[in-house]
Amino acid sequence: MDIGCKLCFDYECQNDGWCANANDSYACECPAGYAEDYCNVNIDECQQNECMNGATCVDMIANYTCSCPHGWTGWLCEQDINECDSDPCQNNGSCRNLEGMFECVCTDEFVGRQCETYKVVTCENFPCRNGSTCVDVKSQ
Question: Taking CA 138 as the corner, what is the angle to CA 137 and CA 139, rounded to the nearest 5 degrees?
Fold first, then answer.
């Protein structure tokens, strides 16, 4: 029976680490994502992340994920979302998909990010409410 000197004890190992060779090494064997002698350090996988397009890296255990900014998707935020699929332009404006965003090209009558506002407000296109009388003012 070999009594010997035991250098490592499983109870000292953290984060489900274990003593692989208790008689020869005081260091614990660590599961993926942890490091140091007692497996007490969570490895920051975000230090070597490949997130793209301004994404924020979120560290996990033995992995990471990318939190994508608006307009991007995919595990690394590498895929541009086609914002024109949702038909965001109003009043017959046409949509142009750009990287991470969209742009509306408005007809001559409308302006605004989504062509939502009349360029020239008249009694015809924006009548008064609650029984008021509308009078168009002509510019001089």
Answer: 115
Please say whether the beta carbons of 18 and 28 come within 8 A.
yes
Long-range contacts of 98-103 (CB under 8 A, 24+ apart): 99/53, 99/71, 100/53, 100/69, 100/70, 100/71, 100/72, 101/70, 101/71
pLDDT digits (tens, 9 = 90+) for 8-56: 899 999 999 999 888 888 899 999 999 999 999 999 999 999 999 999 9
Question: What is the C-alpha separation between 87 and 107, in angstroms, rounded?
Answer: 15
pTM as predicted: 0.62
CA 51, CA 78: separation in Å to the nearest integer? Answer: 8
